[in-house]
Each structure stands twice: as C-alpha cells, then as structure tokens.
Amino acid sequence: MAQLVDEVRRLHALVGQVGERACVGMYLTTRDALAICGAGVTAQPVLLGADAWLHVPPGGWSAWLDSLTSRQRVKKIRKEVRRFREAGYEITHMPLSECYESLAVAAASTQSKYGNAGSPEDYLATLRRYVDGMGIAAKVAVCSRRGDHPVGFCIYFVWGDTVFLRWCGFDYKRLVDGAAEYFNLLYYDQVELAAERGVRWIHAGIKSPEAKARRGAELRPLWLVDLAEDSVLAQVSDQVQQHNMRGYQRLVEDGQTSAALVDRDSWEAFL
Against a cut of 0.85, is the pTM above it? Predict the structure, then answer.
C-alpha cells in the first residue's frame, strides 16, 4: 500500500503541473481506508455515504424472505410483487448488446428527473460505451409488457457470487401507479434468480439507503481519502470527524436504517 501511495503521489505531481490538483481515493471501503492511513497518509477519511448490499442466503427467494426480521416488511414486499405482476409486467434478461438501442428513452427520462439534461440520442452513446467496454459481460434486465416497448431497464454485471447493479432507467409516463417497478426490477427479480446463478450478494449502491434498508439491505460506509502530502484535510481533522459523526448519527437515529448498520466497527473507525 505504501508503494501505491507513493506512485499515486508521483503521478499527481506530474499531472498537477498542467491541470487538476486533486489526489484522492473515492468510495473506499473501511478496510482500504485503514490500509491507506497505515501507509502514512495523515488526512482524516471523509464519510461519503452508505453502500447497500442485499445478502441472499442459500435457498434464494423463500430463504431471503425468511431472513427478514419484520413480518410487515415481508408483507409489503409480497404486495409489491403481486401488484407488479397484476400490471402485466415481464422481465427479460439478455446481453446489453442485443437491445441497448431500445433503452435510450428510459435512460433520458430518468436522467431528466434528476436534473440531468440530455436527449435519448445522447444517452444512446453512453449505452453504447457500456457495450464497447464490457462486451457480453454487460447484462440488462428489461421491464416491459408483452409485445410492448421497454418501460424500464437495469444494467448489471455478475462477478463471482455478486450481482453489481449499475444503471437503471424508466419511462415514467408509461408506468403503472403503485406497481413498484423499481424494486421489482432491481431487487426482487435478482433475488429470485440468485440461487440458479450461485449469487449470494446484490450490490445496490449508495442512493436511497432508507428504502433499501427497508427491504433488508445491509449498509456499509464508503470513504474519501486525500492522498496528497500537503492535504488541507490534515489540518481540519476535527471538522472532518464531526462531519463523519453527524452522518453516522443520522443513520443510527433513523429507525429505517439503524438495524442495517451491521458492522458498527467499520462505521466508527474514523469517528
């Protein structure tokens, strides 16, 4: 790790002569952040967010439901699955290369919802880069009604015993009210397929930790570490520590997320 830090700093010095001065590691696990600090980095790691992971026990769907502690939660999930199916939705899995051109409208619709401008043509180019970069490893779950155009998609990768969810999009104008398309497409369908794929974990990312925790996800911390020798963060460790504590306390005090903080030591490592 010390050799890695030295090499990153060397490259940073070269690049910094002509442009960007940042020299940070982003979205690091607690284990990696601790290793970097142990290699001589003095800046206090900064808490970036909560990373959601769904554990699927052997036995797949039924075993996963049995593992959830709240019967109300199980009841809610079953209701969301039922409404999704009653709406006539189907989910098809295929290589992204076979269908990416039909997903651009949903991609643009979702990006627009979150304030990112762009036409379907703009996002078609981004989808194409996934195909060029990952080839057949880029899979997609496509949500549609029989014989109709897709209303949603989720691009994902399978590596070892883990499904990594990477990009979803929905054509919101065509969704059915109350059918929970998001959770059915991204989580429930993947859990149902887990046993036959040998999957034990679904990596759901950092957005909406409360909603993911309500559906049984574990929340793990992700950190930013400034590797620069002259890091300004090294001079404000107290403020960084206070920031980390506030973020942690918000999750601890929220009844929806508190139980999802399974490994408290990893959260408290930099408090």
Answer: yes
